[in-house]
Design a protein that fits this description.
single chain, alpha/beta, Glutaredoxin, 2 domains
Length: 224
């Protein structure tokens, strides 16, 4: 009888321990892994840990100036995002594959930070010749995209592909030089801080990654 009771007690303790671990993991998914986020300087996305008052931050890669049109026909530039935290990705409106899921996950971010003026979203069309302003406008209206929160961008293909490959480093083909005419397609979301530094890259198809992105944005908001 004693052996049976001991086994029963052991199973109960193991069950409690499993539930405790599961609960902790769930909580971790909604809190940032660190108190400060690293910086990223190039396409390998090797983290660089610097205190925000470290002068070395001045030499970290920054997103260079750009000029594009959004779904309202307004010109957007790096100044549109000045002093803002933003998440960016690359998509196209007629994409039948990964883009609908990416858009759905961007919508989660839109809803999470809807009332937060410090957080914006930026989605670049990788088929800008097809995704004109009216096409982007209709796409936005069909999906409840709020233009003051979430910019859908079109412009020259050369400019958009330059941004994707040389500024945001969204493709993973490290060391491979691609021509501007080679199609750019990626599921990556990139987190950019108030000073145009890259602070994170996330799989835009993965719900756990989106939860981590939300947590990291909240961590980044604490920086001035």
């Amino acid at each position: 009888m004693s052996l049976i009771m001991n086994k029963s007690k052991l199973r109960t303790e193991l069950l409690f321990f499993t539930i405790l671990i599961f609960s902790c993991n769930n909580e971790t998914g909604r809190s940032s892994r660190v108190e400060e986020l690293p910086y990223y300087n190039e396409a390998s996305f090797t983290p660089i840990w610097l205190a925000k008052d470290n002068r070395a931050v001045e030499n970290i890669h920054k997103i260079s100036p750009f000029s594009l049109l959004n779904q309202e026909g307004d010109t957007i530039t790096e100044k549109t995002f000045e002093g803002k935290i933003y998440v960016t990705d690359f998509f196209f409106t007629s994409c039948p594959g990964i883009c609908p899921k990416m858009t759905a996950n961007m919508e989660i971010l839109q809803n999470e930070f809807l009332e937060d003026e410090d957080v914006l979203l930026l989605s670049h069309s990788v088929t800008p010749g097809k995704d004109s302003v009216p096409i982007l406008k209709a796409y936005a209206q069909n999906r409840g995209i709020i233009s003051t929160k979430w910019h859908l961008a079109t412009g020259s293909q050369e400019e958009i592909y330059r941004l994707g490959r040389l500024e945001y480093f969204v493709e993973e083909d490290l060391g491979v030089t691609k021509d501007v005419d080679e199609f750019l397609h990626t599921e990556n979301f990139v987190l950019v801080d108030r000073h145009r530094h890259i602070r994170g890259i996330y799989n835009g198809l993965n719900k756990s990654a989106i939860n981590q992105l939300i947590a990291d944005i909240k961590t980044l908001r604490k920086e001035k």
